[in-house]
Amino acid sequence: MKFLKAIAVASLLAIAPIAVMPATAANVVETASSAGSFGTLLAAAQAAGLADALATTANITVFAPTDEAFAALPAGTVEDLLKPENKDKLVAILTAHVVAAKVMAGDIAEGTTEVATLNPAVKLTVTKDASGVTVSLSNSAKVVTADVGADNGVIHVIDAVLLP
Known about the structure:
The chain has 164 residues and is an alpha+beta fold.
């Protein structure tokens, strides 16, 4: 009987790690898609030809404007940006929201720092103080939700679209 119990325990221990291993997290695009509040951002990334890069590039930080942030732009702006003839402008805007490093909110130093983005012409100004984190270009956006993890990086949800 002891032998049977030993085999049963050994069998459970052998399969237990399989049962408790976490599933692979979704990439940045899948994570944003499942959140349900980034439809405009994802449509823009698709129109700009950047969706695959956001899904496969490792160790990125995306400052992701919500659908409400896009809706706050002047009327017709999003529709205009989605036109094929404005693809370069759209790419410039979207790549200004992405940093080529995985930066969690706790990694951001107090004070103001400039960080390079995937748009080589744009550096974000990141400010962390007692009220939270803001990112700025010609306008500012507040990080409203930080550290949304993905298997290839992190998303920080922002309340405005940053315009270079």
